[in-house]
Amino acid sequence: MANELRFQVVGEAFKKKPLDVKAPSERPCEYFGRKVFNREKMYKYLPKDIYEKMVDVMENGAQLDRTVADAVAVGMMQWAKEQGVTHYTHWFQPLTEGTAEKHDSFIEHDDKAAIEREQNGACSDSAEHEQARTKFKGGMIEEFSGKLLVQQEPDASSFPSGGIRSTFEARGYSAWDPTSPVFIIDDTLIIPTVFISYSGESLDYKAPLLRALKAVNVAATEVCHYFDPTVKKVTSNLGWEQEYFLVDEGLYAARPDLLLTGRTLMGHDSAKNQQMDDHYFGSIPERVAAFMRELEIVALELGIPCKTRHNEVAPNQFELAPIFEETNLAVDHNMLLMSVMKRVARKHGFRVLLHEKPFAGINGSGKHNNWSLSTDNGILLHAPGKTAEQNLRFATFIVETLMGVYRHNGLLKASIMSATNAHRLGANEAPPAIISSFLGRQVSELLDHIERADKDDILSMAGKQGMKMDIPEIPELLIDNTDRNRTSPFAFTGNRFEFRAVGSEANCASAMITLNAAVAEALVDFKKRVDKKISEYSEKPEFSEGSGHNPVYHAIIDVLREDIKTCKPIRFDGNGYSDEWKEEAARRGLDVETSCPIIFERYLDGISIAMFESLGVMTRKELEARNEVKWETYTKKIQIEARVLGDLSMNHIIPVATSYQSALLKNVERMTAAFPAEKAAALNARNLKLIEEIGQRTATIETKVEELVAARKVANKLEDEHKKAIAYHDTIAPMFDTIRYQIDKLELIVDDALWPLPKYRELLFIR
Ligand code: ADP
Ligand code: MG
User: What is the pTM of this model?
Assistant: First the structure.
């Protein structure tokens, strides 16, 4: 009774050949953005005044009025029709993973369209309307108005809202985000939108992200004015690095755990895995290379600026990284890329695994978020400069970033935490479950200097030339050459910070909302204190005009020195995986909690609510609702895993182990019949041991699965989502390991021909 499915899919996977991917005849820079209604197309398809208005909306956040929206819709529709598009959809990012969309076609009954045109004031008089009605009644036309572009009402009741809608207002609506361009997939025009309830609460990731980006823009622009009064805008930049696994589709289908939970709930280590380090940066396997080629073509056409592709550390693990972009756009592009990856992978006979930890014992996947701030006049605020003034500005932004991260380190951890990412954090790989920041030697020295050197030495008089500052330069070489600390969850890497704790499956918006808000708050607070000091200094005679003393720089240095001292606990350049660090971090007062549902509580801490509310990013009510969703999602994930584990144990593993046990028993019987007692006993010894071991292990599995079911029943009785999530974390999730341990041991002794689930070596090395 060999296991046919497993051998069949393994055999088929081996035979698969790379698909032949036809490269477009143009060069990538020519087909880049072909499917995007970007500026170039706006310029071509919109009247000049409307184009200019749109630029103002996109660049300066100007109000978008209805007549403009109508005119944009007309141009957009024309372009879309030329591309063969028949449908449109609002595209939003609900609090589940991924994106949501509901497609409507452009077609409309002509009489309904005429009535609407009149209601919108598009018909000049009712005679025209009458004419339109009588003339076209009964036919079909294609229509796309500003109203449809700007707002849609998806049937939102089945998206998680943490009870906001049931308590306040039943419906939610999606509203166009004109800062992220519309694009085409297949026959559909896709419109990026925010998703909010009628009472105004956000039900998605984009709305609070846009608010956090605005807050950091306002706060950082004001701080920039100390150094350069011409700065009009500060943009937050994000460059993500997406890690993922590819698994052959047939093998995937034969693993119910992968199919239903995104990870393997069992599977013994492959004899070989990543210990040879031979996969990382190795040559890309052919079938995978074909997949990557096609993925990049599709992504480039959608305006995602893909730049880097390579193998990652674990077998069958890969990475794709684009060039960084404005954060809101980068977030949309990452969401889009994840969905495009899934489609393209299927075409190539693969499934892409975005789960943070699909396989035990080898590296998991993350999504490093490279983040920085830059000004509209081209200054990268997290990059060291050439002059002392520039480096004072650099120090300001580094220190205030650290202040935000220090103050909200627990919240930042909550922002990247999930049932799936929990497998990665704190395990002996990737970032530990403590947020700290690595700066590297030179930046540390710069901060130490500002903190400790004599202030009069730093700000010395220099006669008529005005002030001279003694702030060390940082060689530009550093930018490419930062000594790297791979264990740091928030590392400075030359001209940006790299937030490495973000999970591969996550919507980057969650981390970006918190990080940008935390830094905005730090900058607002910094400015308040600096302004106060400036006004104090300005009254003193030694700061009078022509004294050579600049009250602004004096004030900035004073405040920076305070802050460098305050945020010192967040700076850590050592090994983040060590046990000593856990103790040291606790001593420093950093958040060292490891339980996912408890970490979520940080969102409801007084300092978190105060920060989000004061910046207008989220209200207490929204935060509470979101936490309900987080706890509920956590519970559901563990619940599904528990069910799958129970089913596989009872229906796949135990029957197979038992049938192998029967075969062994039969063998023992026959041996006993064939040989004299003493000889038979000797010959049967090994099999008898195996028979017993199988018996014990299957019995343990059965008992543990029963306990698992019982524990679930107890937890399910809890009505409070918070308590339920804690119960699932504390009592249910830990049982998985015991069951898995027994199954993995059985995998080693049961006849390979009988084993039903593709093994790790097959999942990881067939490509
Ligand atoms: P790594 O060596 O960590 O793999 P890469 O050179 O591949 O880093 O770059 C990672 C990402 O960081 C890319 O998306 C890149 O565009 C982005 N990046 C580079 N500079 C900045 C910056 N100043 N701000 C934000 N992202 C940046
Ligand atoms: Mg990186």
Answer: 0.93
